[in-house]
């Protein structure tokens, strides 16, 4: 008897999670071994059951899918992660793949496409939904963002990345200072350094960069 592939579903909308469970459970190749409502729950599931694959929604409370993908790949490198999302924008695709996702499927996919995507990543073949794959390939061919964005990200300190995340989430200097146990002056310095290093000069630009790097979801 062929071994079933173990699947964890991470999705914060109950009706969607239950629908996915029902659809995949009807396939003899898959066994649902865990469910999670947010990124932290997904990480805990992976730590407990070490599944073959995780279906990962990107926009979830407490910890978003992008952050969870990074942690899961550190915790269980052999577990495949398939991003399952409504986001078609290239920056979400790039950020997901950079975080370690093995594939990217849109939520309007048919069941046969979802099954094919799961089997592709299980076989070690990256999968991108046809609706977005063309755009991503064009983006790579044009060389857009990749080298510049990567080098900019690399020169940020860990503290600057923390401050960037909080700025993008809408926190003011005083709130960031309290949260990170820093002085307001230090936070102002970090903010100034971020704008200088990234050559971005307002909060909306910093927020867009944070989204591109998977720090926050919108």
Notes on the structure:
The structure is a single chain. With 218 residues, the chain is α/β, with parallel strands linked by helices. The chain has two domains: 137 residues, Rossmann fold (3-Layer(aba) Sandwich), CATH 3.40.50.2300; 67 residues, Winged helix-like DNA-binding domain superfamily/Winged helix DNA-binding domain (Arc Repressor Mutant, subunit A, Orthogonal Bundle). 56% of the residues lie in helices and 13% in strands. It contains eleven helices and six strands. A six-stranded parallel beta sheet has the order 2-1-3-4-5-6, sandwiched between helices. Strand 5, helix 5 and strand 6 form a beta-alpha-beta unit. Helix 2 runs parallel beside helix 3 and helix 8 crosses helix 11. The protein is elongated, with a radius of gyration of 19 Å. It starts with a strand and ends in a 6-residue tail after the last helix.
